[in-house]
Amino acid sequence: MADSPIAVEHHNPALKHHFADMEQQRQASSLGMWLFLATEIMFFGGMFCAYLIYRLWYFPDFAAASNSLDITLGTVNTAVLICSSLTVVMAVRAAQLGKRQQQVIYLALTLVLGLAFLGVKAVEWTSKFKEHHIPGPTFNFEGSIPSHPDQPVDQHHAQIFFSLYFAMTGMHALHMIIGVGIFSYLLYYAWKGKYTPEYHTPLENSGLYWHFVDIVWIYLFPLLYLIDRKK
Amino acid sequence: MATAAITAERENYLNQEYGIKSWLLTVDHKRIALLYLLSITFFFFIGGFFALLIRLELLTPAGDLVQADTYNKLFSMHGMVMVFFFLIPSIPAVLGNFLVPLMIGAKDLAFPRINLLSWYLYIIAGILMLHSMLTGGVDTGWTFYTPFSTAFSNTKVIEAGLAIFISGFSSILTGLNFVVTIHRMRAPGMTWDRLPLFIWAHYATSIIQLLGTPVIAVTLVLVVLERALHLGIFDPTRGGDPLLFQHLFWFYSHPAVYIMILPSMGVVTEIIPCFCRKRIFGYKFVALSSISIAVFGFLVWAHHMFVAGISLYAALIFSALSYLVAVPSAIKVFNWTATMYKGSITFSTPMLYAFGFVGLFTMGGLTGLFLAALGIDVHVTDTYFVVAHFHYIMVGGALMGYLGGMHFWWPKISGRMYPESLGRLAALIVFLGFNLTFFPQFILGYLGMPRRYWQYPPEFQVLNVLSTAGATVLAVGYLLPMVYFLWSMRYGKVAPDNPWGASGLEWMTTSPPPTFNFDKPPVVTWEAYDYEHIPAPQEARSGG
């Protein structure tokens, strides 16, 4: 066995000193990312838990409040996010095949879709402001229970729905904003040709993050927008 | 074999680079461990200062030193600083950071830059915490119970909440780094059943950090949002449920106790075989008991809420599950004892701390069973019995382990020996001071003295005076190691590579280790704690 710990063979410049080889480095990064996503599940899990309890307690009021959300915008946003997950996968694939130009295009598309999602979200939130659906002293929700139109909605319970709505979509949007930041960074370095078939771990791991944020929305959409929808 | 003089001069992680920048921008896990050591020591003394003021106020039955409002802030900030800025990072971020790569034969943690980031997050959180304390403080207790924290307290709840939120990120990143490192960076031959049990303990701890911390993070975010933006999730006047807050809070904060105690158990499991010159008794049981403590720890949180209005059936189930935690804990205690049986025991400083740990942890654990029993819990909830119980675990357990570990690995960290006889004296003072401080509190609590009050009926005074006297002794016991550790860095005897004749890869490199830990990547061909084949060093064992 040779005494020198330094390998003489081909040495990838992206290999950090404390890893033995690229494979070990890639596996470590990947495991790290999955663990991080596990912490994210627990983070959102706390809010999902709160949601579950209040939805069971105050179902009719939750249904009424949910029906007031704009289902068209919500559906469009769901479609936008699913498409963005597709473009992320395509960008990773392009990196694996060493196609720089395609990589750049798909990353740019992802960014556009992410920003579109945030734009639609901003429109929705603005209308909530106008309708006084923001929790707090000015909160006012007019309406009745969908299944019993003669029964008015409990203001307090509707307020809990909107508290959860803003906490959950707000945290989700914050993750989207961070994602947009990460993907701008990736776009710049993809443009520079940093990600090759041998080394594109940042792309892969950021992709995992993006999919995760996407999946959170896939749960948020039915839970918030589709309670007891009749039409 | 290198002689001592050559060892002192050779290049190591301490002398490879000098200057403030080489420390603040370092990605070396050993240097980051020292950065953490400095910062948590700073916060330990701040938390200790609050503790001292609390004990001084309780010297007399009347509320004379501070007023009720100030007292509320004192115990709140004592708790927040000690839990989030000292105990949670203590062993993992200092000893774990230093030792995990060394013990498994790696050059560094898997993500060195994330490791540095976690220290910076800790510092940012610490500055925010300090700022909140200097500009008015917090009075919610470390538990932030709603609706007091969201609707009534007019202190710096938002700032303190955000500080703890950020420190949580630091804790998560440390845990994440450890899990990945232990999975992916082990040296050839370092299989899972050859890992030192310190590593197993840190693995279990990291799992809790990863899965528990995000829950308190989101809980504090919701509290902050409720205060700042008037959400109503925990507001009973709008149909929100304060009990939900308690569930979410304790879902993290109960397992957090195991973040504090498990690494300490890991330390003790390294010390005992070394100073008994024996293989650990029941390696697999000790390893798996760490994991099962981590798992059971997630299933018992509602035993903090027996009198909060949860259903009787829920309480019964949580009570039964809490008893289950005693099983893996007892396995550890029995296995440590069995390791000592017929061992050739040296009463060196680390071993004294280990003895202290085993005894005090056992008392803390057994009184924990009292509290898990519904009937007794109703009687002693929110009394000094609870205070005494968790201080036996956190201070008697976690802190004793931390100090024991600091002494055990100090030669490796600094390259110098601490003065052995002073070390033994300090260990003795800590043990006596600790018991004098907290044992009377068991009696006080059983007699009905409630916690978190700044004055009390005169019949409780004798025991309170004893407790305050003990706290003074304890303070001396903590200051002594501070002083002689600093002294030893300059004047201590130069440490050999393996002063204790200990097993483990960290002792096979130089003291202090080189920046990349090993001159040659190690290959492991032996079991852990192979003490039958390691000679005991005569010089160090006779004491210094």
Task: Give the helix/strand layout.
The complex is a heterodimer of chains A (231) and B (544).
Chain A: H1 22-57, H2 59-67, H3 71-97, H4 100-130, H5 155-191, H6 201-225
Helix pairs in contact in A: 1-5, 1-6, 2-5, 3-4, 3-6, 4-5, 5-6
Chain B: H1 4-9, H2 20-24, H3 29-57, H4 68-104, H5 112-134, H6 148-152, H7 157-184, H8 197-229, H9 242-276, H10 283-297, H11 312-340, H12 349-372, H13 374-380, H14 384-414, H15 420-447, H16 461-491, H17 538-541
Your description of this structure?
The complex is a heterodimer of chains A (231) and B (544). Chain A is mainly α. Helices cover 71% and strands 0% of the residues of chain A. Chain A has helices at residues 22-57, 59-67, 71-97, 100-130, 155-191, 201-225. The relative contact order of chain A is 0.17. In chain B, 68% of the residues lie in helices and 0% in strands. Chain B is mainly α and 544 residues long. Chain B has a single domain (26-541), classed as Cytochrome c oxidase-like, subunit I domain (Cytochrome C Oxidase, Chain A, Up-down Bundle), CATH 1.20.210. Chain B is built from 17 helices and no strands. The interface between A and B is large, with 41 and 46 residues.
